[in-house]
Design brief:
single chain; 60s Ribosomal Protein L30, Chain: A; five-stranded mixed β-sheet; four-stranded mixed β-sheet; about 30% strand; globular
Length: about 180
């Protein structure tokens, strides 16, 4: 069995690799965006915290829109284009159930409703919409999405094979 290095992503981090690598992260209201090029067997993951910030002056992987600029630079550096990548989106769980939202029942596939979430007080809702909008904007192919809900997700991604495993945490009632 081949020993593969492991990179654990913390919130606001990303990793893009051309070498065999296992990338792992734990998500709550944050989002993991996994990008994999099946022909070149390269790719990576980001763990963004927020959809954007008011002063959009840098390239910071804590923000979905800024991470996309970082990713586009990586993609260009490897002579590939966004449409060649398979993308998987995970996370955006409502970890603060006491916060009411205007978009609880909206399916993320229906982008015409995304304006309802842009100013939502619930960060998980805004993160979900940002993941969908950012990937569509640049022409990525989303092959899997598990966004929303109310539980943590453990995400593992193997760069060499594109294999992705997601395990949802079980809620335990405290007495």
């Amino acid at each position: 069995m081949k020993c593969v290095p492991v990179k654990v992503l913390m919130p606001g981090e990303y990793q893009f690799s051309v070498q065999p690598l296992r990338i792992q992260t734990l998500l709550g209201s944050c989002v993991a965006m996994i990008f994999w090029h099946p022909k070149k067997r390269i790719g990576g993951m980001c763990h963004y915290v927020l959809p954007s910030r008011n002063c959009n002056t840098g390239n910071d992987a804590r923000y979905a829109d800024e991470f996309m600029r970082i990713l586009l630079t990586e993609i260009d550096r490897h002579g590939t284009s966004p449409r060649e990548y398979q993308v998987r989106l995970f996370g955006a769980a409502n970890m603060f159930r006491q916060l009411k939202t205007t978009c609880t029942d909206i399916e993320p596939e229906y982008s015409q409703h995304s304006e309802l979430c842009q100013n939502c007080a619930n960060v998980s809702c805004r993160n979900r919409i940002a993941a969908i909008n950012e990937t569509r904007k640049y022409g990525f192919t989303v092959v899997e999405a598990d966004l929303g809900g109310t539980v943590y997700r453990y995400v593992n991604f193997m760069v060499e094979t594109g294999e992705t495993a997601v395990r949802k945490a079980q809620l335990v009632a405290l007495l």
